[in-house]
């Protein structure tokens, strides 16, 4: 909008008057005429079709100027919001006069809604620094230069047409707007007269919400997006589905209070805590789940929550019942009960040797290792357990051990052993079985049970956080390195150097320990790993001992390995 329609007539009159003065006075040598100010006009402005970010639009304003008795040397301009607010470019206040010699300027303007406007002023100044006393002005606004296109609506998550679901349904609805953003989404059952509004995320256009208390039977829901200029999708998205009351969440206990599980009282204690995790799912009928649990008494259920784990505290010796419930958006509940036993560690059978190396991949090397008694040496009070199960062909020496079973070890079995030797590998499934046994393993250690662990990927088993890491305090500063050649160097009198075979590779190495209750058993022959160790033992004041030996247990010198495990079992574990 230009506000200077009469200005040209004024200028013509002033020019004629000045000429008359010049004719009448010049011959008499009177003083010269006064300088005339310049004139300014706004030519046009452009606003970008799409925002550059969020609701910020690139805006370019064009102008020109003229001077009747000289020339235009430059311009000064400013822009102010329609509510009087200042406009900034970084720390520069564009609502104060800005000086330029150019005839255009590009500004990034925030236009969160179609009716948002700005007031722009521009005034030329001439070669004698006279400023146009009547700056050109215009209203800058998106509403004046382009039409607002309404948004479109899509269903990102929800039941399919013809699907079956519960009385509570979880939806993600997305609004798409080519010339703005989606402010909110509205929804209703097709027969309803009013819409319900749900705010949308301004960056994605997504509105995430639950529709509750749907009637049983056939339902059709309508959804429409509303943009930041008030535009409404004229063609709402819709979905039709059937609501039933027969669907229930899936629910399972993953660890801790597993059916038939048995855990130990800590050494010198009368109660224990049990970390338990679970998993539930109602997404297969587009619902979500919340959980609550109780121990022994269903009158003491916890509040509903989305957490998928908890620590059961203060468990005494004896049997305990764990009650777990999952509830969907429709209020439908699945409940499971598990029985868990708590008792002291008996430790009346000596050593349990546990194999966690895959026979199908490493049978040749494992035959040699076990035939040499690597893992237990000359100890005789040894039973055998295999995480994978015995193959059809295995070393005859294993027949001399008491074979107790395969897969995950149960607590009532482990409780009869004072020490467990675990030869692991993190290949083809042993880590997954170990992860399921973590609460039992930590319980065993706290009860006074001892563990000797030999594996290449120690960090995978001990972890970098959690109960087992907290108990052992072992940090690894080298992960997946090759310690060949050389292998392990004995750091304690009674142990021997334990060389690796030529094919040894990929080992996690512990950092040099700083805890006073930890003793280095082996250093490393490879000088590249001077800040790491090859083996150590943790001896807490209360609880069992934990020895760790780094490397592929089936790719060491077997005689040296047998001698070292024998020494550790006898002199540290008391076997």
Helical residues, percent: 10-25%
Largest pleated sheet: 9 strands, mixed
Average pLDDT over all residues: 91
Beta-strand portion reads 35-45%
Number of domains: 4
Describe this structure in words.
A 9-stranded mixed β-sheet has the order 27-26-25-28-29-35-34-33-31, with helices on both faces. Strand 4 (88-89) and strand 5 (92-93) form a beta hairpin. It folds into 4 domains: 35-144, Immunoglobulins (Immunoglobulin-like), CATH 2.60.40.10; 152-243, Immunoglobulins (Immunoglobulin-like); 250-343, Immunoglobulin-like; 351-572, Rossmann fold. Mean pLDDT is 91; it is low at 1-28. It has 575 residues and is mainly β. It has 7 helices and 35 strands.
Which characteristics define this entry?
575 residues; mainly beta; Immunoglobulin-like; nine-stranded mixed beta sheet; five-stranded mixed beta sheet; elongated; disordered N terminus
Topology (SSEs and partners):
Elements: H1 7-25, E1 39-47, E2 56-66, E3 72-81, E4 88-89, E5 92-93, E6 98-100, E7 104-110, E8 117-126, E9 136-141, E10 152-157, E11 163-165, E12 169-176, E13 182-189, E14 196-199, E15 206-211, E16 217-227, E17 237-243, E18 250-255, E19 262-264, E20 271-281, E21 290-295, E22 309-316, E23 318-327, E24 333-343, E25 351-356, H2 359-371, E26 382-386, E27 402-406, H3 411-414, E28 419-424, H4 430-446, E29 450-455, H5 458-462, H6 467-472, E30 476-481, E31 488-490, E32 507-510, E33 518-524, E34 535-538, E35 546-550, H7 558-572
Parallel strand pairs: 11-17, 19-24, 25-26, 25-28, 26-27, 28-29, 29-35
Antiparallel strand pairs: 1-2, 2-7, 3-6, 3-8, 4-5, 8-9, 10-12, 12-15, 13-14, 13-16, 16-17, 18-20, 20-22, 21-23, 23-24, 30-32, 31-33, 33-34, 34-35
